[in-house]
Amino acid sequence: GENVEQHPSTLSVQEGDSAVIKCTYSDSASNYFPWYKQELGKGPQLIIDIRSNVGEKKDQRIAVTLNKTAKHFSLHITETQPEDSAVYFCAASQGAQKLVFGQGTRLTINP
Amino acid sequence: NAGVTQTPKFQVLKTGQSMTLQCAQDMNHEYMSWYRQDPGMGLRLIHYSVGAGITDQGEVPNGYNVSRSTTEDFPLRLLSAAPSQTSVYFCASSYAAPGQGSSPLHFGNGTRLTVT
Question: Is the pLDDT of residue B27 over 80?
Fold first, then answer.
Protein backbone atom coordinates (compact mmCIF):
# COMPACT_ATOMS: atom_id res chain seq x y z
CA GLY A 1 0.00 0.00 0.00
CA GLU A 2 0.85 3.66 -0.08
CA ASN A 3 3.23 5.18 2.47
CA VAL A 4 3.62 8.94 2.87
CA GLU A 5 6.51 10.53 4.76
CA GLN A 6 6.32 14.21 5.74
CA HIS A 7 9.11 16.53 6.91
CA PRO A 8 9.78 18.45 9.02
CA SER A 9 7.55 17.59 11.96
CA THR A 10 7.87 21.15 13.30
CA LEU A 11 8.80 24.35 11.49
CA SER A 12 9.25 27.84 12.89
CA VAL A 13 9.66 30.85 10.58
CA GLN A 14 9.65 34.61 10.95
CA GLU A 15 6.58 36.46 9.76
CA GLY A 16 7.03 37.44 6.14
CA ASP A 17 9.47 34.63 5.36
CA SER A 18 8.65 31.53 3.30
CA ALA A 19 7.88 28.05 4.60
CA VAL A 20 8.38 24.77 2.78
CA ILE A 21 7.02 21.37 3.80
CA LYS A 22 8.03 18.23 1.91
CA CYS A 23 6.42 14.83 1.41
CA THR A 24 7.48 11.64 -0.29
CA TYR A 25 5.21 8.80 -1.38
CA SER A 26 5.85 5.19 -2.27
CA ASP A 27 3.15 4.16 -4.76
CA SER A 28 3.94 5.29 -8.29
CA ALA A 29 0.26 4.78 -9.19
CA SER A 30 -0.86 7.58 -6.84
CA ASN A 31 -2.32 10.41 -8.89
CA TYR A 32 -3.86 12.88 -6.46
CA PHE A 33 -2.02 14.90 -3.77
CA PRO A 34 -3.98 17.24 -1.48
CA TRP A 35 -2.75 19.42 1.37
CA TYR A 36 -4.82 20.07 4.48
CA LYS A 37 -4.54 22.72 7.20
CA GLN A 38 -5.72 21.95 10.72
CA GLU A 39 -6.31 24.73 13.22
CA LEU A 40 -6.50 24.07 16.94
CA GLY A 41 -9.62 22.18 17.95
CA LYS A 42 -10.89 21.78 14.40
CA GLY A 43 -10.85 19.22 11.64
CA PRO A 44 -8.44 19.46 8.69
CA GLN A 45 -9.46 21.66 5.79
CA LEU A 46 -8.28 21.37 2.19
CA ILE A 47 -6.06 24.29 1.13
CA ILE A 48 -4.66 23.13 -2.21
CA ASP A 49 -4.33 19.97 -4.25
CA ILE A 50 -2.55 18.75 -7.36
CA ARG A 51 -3.06 15.91 -9.80
CA SER A 52 -0.27 13.85 -11.27
CA ASN A 53 -0.55 15.39 -14.74
CA VAL A 54 0.45 18.82 -13.35
CA GLY A 55 3.87 19.83 -12.03
CA GLU A 56 2.93 22.96 -10.11
CA LYS A 57 -0.17 24.75 -8.88
CA LYS A 58 -0.50 28.15 -7.19
CA ASP A 59 -3.23 29.84 -5.21
CA GLN A 60 -2.23 33.29 -3.99
CA ARG A 61 0.47 32.76 -1.33
CA ILE A 62 0.49 28.98 -1.44
CA ALA A 63 1.85 26.65 -4.10
CA VAL A 64 2.39 22.94 -4.48
CA THR A 65 5.02 21.27 -6.65
CA LEU A 66 5.10 17.64 -7.71
CA ASN A 67 8.04 15.57 -8.94
CA LYS A 68 6.63 12.26 -10.13
CA THR A 69 10.02 10.80 -11.00
CA ALA A 70 11.35 11.32 -7.49
CA LYS A 71 7.92 10.68 -5.93
CA HIS A 72 7.87 13.78 -3.81
CA PHE A 73 5.72 16.88 -3.53
CA SER A 74 6.06 20.08 -1.55
CA LEU A 75 3.94 22.87 -0.10
CA HIS A 76 5.30 26.41 -0.35
CA ILE A 77 3.86 29.30 1.64
CA THR A 78 5.24 32.75 0.86
CA GLU A 79 4.94 35.99 2.87
CA THR A 80 3.85 34.03 5.92
CA GLN A 81 1.35 35.59 8.32
CA PRO A 82 0.40 34.72 11.93
CA GLU A 83 -2.82 33.06 10.71
CA ASP A 84 -0.72 30.54 8.80
CA SER A 85 0.25 28.96 12.13
CA ALA A 86 -1.38 25.52 12.15
CA VAL A 87 -0.71 21.84 11.53
CA TYR A 88 -0.38 20.91 7.86
CA PHE A 89 -0.92 17.45 6.39
CA CYS A 90 -0.02 16.13 2.98
CA ALA A 91 -1.81 13.13 1.51
CA ALA A 92 -1.61 10.83 -1.49
CA SER A 93 -4.29 8.74 -3.11
CA GLN A 94 -4.24 4.97 -2.74
CA GLY A 95 -6.46 3.73 -5.51
CA ALA A 96 -9.65 5.67 -6.05
CA GLN A 97 -11.14 5.18 -2.61
CA LYS A 98 -8.49 6.11 -0.06
CA LEU A 99 -6.24 8.93 0.99
CA VAL A 100 -3.08 8.18 2.96
CA PHE A 101 -1.87 11.07 5.10
CA GLY A 102 1.58 12.14 6.18
CA GLN A 103 2.50 12.59 9.84
CA GLY A 104 1.83 16.34 9.90
CA THR A 105 3.95 19.49 10.30
CA ARG A 106 3.33 22.01 13.05
CA LEU A 107 4.08 25.42 11.53
CA THR A 108 4.65 28.38 13.85
CA ILE A 109 4.93 31.92 12.50
CA ASN A 110 6.92 34.17 14.80
CA PRO A 111 6.03 37.89 14.82
CA ASN B 1 -25.95 23.54 5.89
CA ALA B 2 -24.10 22.20 8.92
CA GLY B 3 -21.52 20.15 6.98
CA VAL B 4 -20.14 17.16 8.94
CA THR B 5 -21.39 16.92 12.52
CA GLN B 6 -19.72 14.67 15.08
CA THR B 7 -21.02 13.83 18.54
CA PRO B 8 -19.96 13.76 21.28
CA LYS B 9 -17.03 16.21 21.32
CA PHE B 10 -15.43 14.52 24.33
CA GLN B 11 -15.84 11.08 25.89
CA VAL B 12 -14.14 9.13 28.67
CA LEU B 13 -14.58 5.37 28.77
CA LYS B 14 -13.36 2.61 31.02
CA THR B 15 -11.59 -0.39 29.49
CA GLY B 16 -14.14 -2.87 28.18
CA GLN B 17 -16.99 -0.39 27.77
CA SER B 18 -18.68 0.09 24.44
CA MET B 19 -19.86 3.23 22.72
CA THR B 20 -20.84 4.69 19.37
CA LEU B 21 -19.34 7.83 17.85
CA GLN B 22 -21.92 9.56 15.71
CA CYS B 23 -21.28 11.23 12.35
CA ALA B 24 -23.85 12.93 10.15
CA GLN B 25 -23.51 15.01 6.98
CA ASP B 26 -26.12 17.09 5.19
CA MET B 27 -24.30 17.56 1.88
CA ASN B 28 -25.65 14.41 0.18
CA HIS B 29 -22.13 13.00 -0.01
CA GLU B 30 -21.78 9.39 -1.09
CA TYR B 31 -18.34 8.83 0.45
CA MET B 32 -17.81 8.84 4.23
CA SER B 33 -14.84 7.78 6.31
CA TRP B 34 -13.41 7.62 9.82
CA TYR B 35 -9.85 8.57 10.75
CA ARG B 36 -7.98 8.55 14.02
CA GLN B 37 -5.33 11.15 14.80
CA ASP B 38 -2.46 10.33 17.12
CA PRO B 39 0.62 12.46 17.85
CA GLY B 40 3.37 11.90 15.29
CA MET B 41 1.25 9.49 13.26
CA GLY B 42 -0.95 11.77 11.23
CA LEU B 43 -4.41 10.65 10.22
CA ARG B 44 -4.99 6.94 9.80
CA LEU B 45 -8.02 5.53 8.01
CA ILE B 46 -10.20 3.19 10.09
CA HIS B 47 -13.19 2.41 7.86
CA TYR B 48 -14.83 4.01 4.87
CA SER B 49 -18.03 3.78 2.82
CA VAL B 50 -18.66 4.61 -0.82
CA GLY B 51 -22.43 4.62 -0.39
CA ALA B 52 -25.34 3.38 1.70
CA GLY B 53 -25.03 -0.32 2.45
CA ILE B 54 -21.34 -0.49 1.48
CA THR B 55 -18.42 -0.35 3.93
CA ASP B 56 -14.78 -1.39 3.79
CA GLN B 57 -11.74 -1.49 6.01
CA GLY B 58 -9.01 1.06 6.09
CA GLU B 59 -5.51 0.93 7.55
CA VAL B 60 -6.42 0.35 11.23
CA PRO B 61 -9.87 -1.34 11.42
CA ASN B 62 -9.33 -3.71 14.37
CA GLY B 63 -11.57 -2.98 17.35
CA TYR B 64 -14.01 -0.85 15.34
CA ASN B 65 -17.26 -1.58 13.51
CA VAL B 66 -19.22 0.60 11.12
CA SER B 67 -22.49 0.49 9.22
CA ARG B 68 -24.07 2.75 6.60
CA SER B 69 -27.82 2.38 6.56
CA THR B 70 -28.46 5.90 5.22
CA THR B 71 -26.51 8.33 3.05
CA GLU B 72 -26.38 10.86 5.88
CA ASP B 73 -25.09 8.80 8.82
CA PHE B 74 -21.94 6.76 9.41
CA PRO B 75 -21.57 5.71 13.07
CA LEU B 76 -18.36 4.19 14.44
CA ARG B 77 -18.74 1.56 17.15
CA LEU B 78 -16.18 0.53 19.73
CA LEU B 79 -17.33 -2.84 21.06
CA SER B 80 -14.83 -3.21 23.92
CA ALA B 81 -12.72 -0.10 24.44
CA ALA B 82 -8.99 -0.42 25.08
CA PRO B 83 -6.46 2.23 26.20
CA SER B 84 -4.83 1.95 22.75
CA GLN B 85 -8.01 3.48 21.32
CA THR B 86 -7.40 6.74 23.15
CA SER B 87 -7.26 9.20 20.27
CA VAL B 88 -9.02 11.98 18.42
CA TYR B 89 -11.48 10.62 15.88
CA PHE B 90 -12.47 12.47 12.73
CA CYS B 91 -15.29 11.73 10.37
CA ALA B 92 -14.97 13.00 6.79
CA SER B 93 -17.17 12.97 3.72
CA SER B 94 -16.96 13.85 0.05
CA TYR B 95 -19.21 13.80 -2.97
CA ALA B 96 -17.05 11.17 -4.68
CA ALA B 97 -14.25 8.89 -3.50
CA PRO B 98 -11.32 11.18 -2.57
CA GLY B 99 -8.68 9.39 -4.61
CA GLN B 100 -10.40 10.51 -7.77
CA GLY B 101 -9.47 14.08 -6.97
CA SER B 102 -12.81 15.48 -8.07
CA SER B 103 -14.16 16.49 -4.68
CA PRO B 104 -12.36 17.33 -1.44
CA LEU B 105 -12.84 15.59 1.89
CA HIS B 106 -14.83 17.64 4.39
CA PHE B 107 -13.93 16.88 8.01
CA GLY B 108 -15.94 17.21 11.18
CA ASN B 109 -14.39 18.83 14.27
CA GLY B 110 -13.55 15.55 15.93
CA THR B 111 -14.33 13.49 19.03
CA ARG B 112 -11.64 13.31 21.69
CA LEU B 113 -11.82 9.87 23.31
CA THR B 114 -9.95 8.77 26.42
CA VAL B 115 -10.00 5.14 27.55
CA THR B 116 -8.78 4.52 31.10
Answer: yes
